[in-house]
Fold:
Amino acid sequence: MTDLDREANVLGALALVITDQTAAAAAAAAGQSPSAAAALSALHHFLDRPTIDRLRQVLGLTPSGAVRLVDRLVEAGLVTRGPGADGRSRSVALTARGRRAATRISAARAALLSGTLAGLSRTERDTLHGLLGKVLANVVQAKEGGAWICRLCDLDACGRAAGHCPAANAGLAKYGPPSVSD
Amino acid sequence: MTDLDREANVLGALALVITDQTAAAAAAAAGQSPSAAAALSALHHFLDRPTIDRLRQVLGLTPSGAVRLVDRLVEAGLVTRGPGADGRSRSVALTARGRRAATRISAARAALLSGTLAGLSRTERDTLHGLLGKVLANVVQAKEGGAWICRLCDLDACGRAAGHCPAANAGLAKYGPPSVSD
DNA sequence: ACCATATGTGTGACTCACGCAACTATCAAG
DNA sequence: CTTGATAGTTGCGTGAGTCACACATATGGT
Structure:
């Protein structure tokens, strides 16, 4: 039982609670399932209208799973299907209602996460931010495929575009410049 | 877009990846679903033989969900039902095979989590540990009911018994001394 | 130009892991 | 001895996802 184990354990425990609570808060804010909420959040942060396949990659689903998810979102009036750049592909875009839901989701997530940092001083939060960035870079390095790491991530807060996102930077170092919404 | 938002966002993103990967690793190590893996891990860390209801609380399931989960684990030969202290209740205990599976799960989880801390120095890890403890305490304070926060937590690493667990300490401050496996 | 193969989407049948509602058995209190 | 809480269980339904497959479109080699 090393110190490393102890530290790792706290990290794992904390990650689990926070993820649980965030997913629940997002789902509640959307009135939808957690994965639907994640999809709305992702769509909200795409600059262009992604294809179903792109969304699929982000959420880590199978093609058919993604189709069904979009079906449900269309059904709920949160999303519309449009033509894709390709004859095969179709684009997905938020409706006005979908955009409102996505905004609520982001707000709920931000509120919850900010709350967890309540007891920390300015300096402590700064230090924590730096350290978490390092860890995040580690995790991204280790990752191959699967769901987008920033599934519910807030791209503005993330500063991905400005190169502030530790995940994006680490990924960039490894894979080279990605396309905008990758 | 404040600094707080940015810090909170990194925390949320990191928590999500780590939780995803941990659950996947645990499930793979057990050859079972993530929730079955969580159940095995929980059972492994109970000092006594918990009842189904106790397990239910830990995992955040409904009674029927817990019964079905135990059904599956029994079916897989990982767990046995025994008599409870009470005529109503029944106890659950790991079989030898279940114990081995639980050990694999813990090891897989520990390996993954330790890996995420790879790039950090001794001092950095120490600082991080302290800060995460504070955050964890915050989260526990905010929490009412639901799943056990340390669902996959390693109780040895946690140092719960010795009073080193930030979650347990925060909970203790709020609710008073819990029973051993709470 | 033609064919093989890859890619993106969609459908039908199914599974798995839950939840809800209802029922039974036990216990504890009045 | 009734009343009510607690624990486990069962039937039934459902949401979310998978797999296998089909179909349309793209792409590249010959």
Notes: The radius of gyration of chain B is 17 Å. Chain B touches chain A through 64 residues (CB under 8 Å). Strands of chain B lie at 79-83, 90-94.
